[in-house]
Amino acid sequence: MIKLNNNQHKESHGFVEHLQLVRHRLIYISRREMKIFSKRPLFLFSMIIAPLICIFFFTTLMMKGLPTKLPAAIVDADNTHVTRIFCRLLDAFEGTDVKYVFHNFSEARQAMQEGKIYAFYYLPKGMTRDCESQRQPTISFYTNDAYYVPANLLMRDMKTAGVLGGLALTRSSLWGHGTPDSEVMGILQPIVIETHPMKNAFLDYSVYLSNMLVPGLLILLIMLTTTYVIGLEWKQDRQMELYIISGRSPAVALLGKILPQTAIYTIIIIFMNVWFYRYLGFPCNCGLPTMIGLGILTVLASQGFAVFLFGLMAGEMRLSMCICSLWGILSFSLAGFTFPVTAMSTYLRILADWFPLRHYYVIYVNAALDGWSLYYVWPSIVALCCFALLPILVLPRYRKAFLEFKYMA
Fold first, then answer.
1. Are the CB atoms for 122 and 142 separated by under 8 Å?
2. Closest Cα partner for 249 from 5, 13, 14, 19?
3. In 153-274, where do the E strands start and end?
4. Of the candidates 256, 246, 292, 250, the residue with the CA atom closest to the CA atom of residue 393
């Protein structure tokens, strides 16, 4: 019995020594990696400067939420006191800036073709006469939908102005016929409509776009830099040196290579979440620590997926970087924040699950916006964990790559 305990003690002592040796190797490889970073400004730009530029660019670009004061014009062919009221009404909207008042259709069309305006409001000749005679005149508005967002915002304002202008004329007519004030509103608006936008009450475009565009770009940068730093060993013909330093363990070699990146991107993710949810005040019903944890898990998932892709094509750094670029760009379309995944074809719905950004988006919506427990998004959490563990599948191929593969220019 005593002999068995001694064997167990020796095995335990040997295991501890092995862990210490692995730790020393990881530290040495990580320091080696940091020296490589310090000699190549490209890494500084791609891992620190570019992510910060993305964060500040998108949030400052949409700092005011919805675009305001969009240039528009009015074609006032009637030129009466009633049409001038319509002009002032439309210009009063926050999103519309009536920069031009034309008196014929051709001038407005030319201004739109030159890009001076996004839309114009057409008030036909004889409109006031038809209104006074209750002959139901027709007003028109034209939008340049090559610019989708401003055109739709101006369309909404012009439609609202048309409805309000028509109601104002009806109200004046009712008053002229002696209808009491208590009955006028019941005739004009028999049903009162209330709108309550959920999760993004201020209709802030930055909340809608920044929370997906910035993480999506970070995922793209993470995958590109991960494949590049691994492929650099083959490009500079130093893969055997790394393999020997790691104790001939592909897992130790890869882990030591990406640990410095993980630390840098983790700091970037923490800063991004503090900037979004503390400084800018974006809605976050699950708490800041949950979003930071989601960000760190996404970093690990992106790195794991990049290591997996490079392992499938070991020695072909350019091809693996091209696939990472393609995967990162496609994720913006298949994540579901612009076009719902449920409305896509069956094949695209299946393909969407292979993008880390898709799972990040599902967790963000359900946790940060809806305030649900993470229990309801466990499939996406498991998917991100699986992405992070994908390199395990290609470790045998990495072992062969360290020993046999050469860089393919």
1. yes
2. 19
3. none
4. 250
Residue among 18, 16, 30 at smallest CA distance from 255: 30
- Give bridge partners of residue 70 from the DSSP assignment: 96
Query: How many Cα atoms occupy the beta-carbon half-sphere of 361 within 13 Å?
Result: 27
141: β partners = 121
User: Rounded to whole angstroms, how far apart are CA atoms 359 and 331?
Assistant: 10
What pLDDT digit, counting tens, does each position of 290-348 carry? Answer: 999 999 999 999 999 999 999 888 767 888 889 999 998 999 989 888 888 888 888 99
Band of residue 4 on the pLDDT scale cut at 50, 70, 90: very low
pLDDT tens digit sequence for 221-234: 999 999 999 988 88
Tell me which residue of 231, 192, 222 sits closest to 296, measured CA to CA. 222
Cα separation values, 204 from 62, 153, 215, 254, 320, Å: 8, 13, 18, 41, 37
Q: How far apart are CA 391 and CA 1, in angstroms?
A: 42
Cβ pair 204, 63 in contact under 8 A:
no
Q: In angstroms, rounded to a whole number, what is the distance separating the alpha carbons of residues 322 and 261?
A: 20
Cα-Cα-Cα-Cα torsion 208, 211, 214, 218, nearest 10 degrees, comes to -140
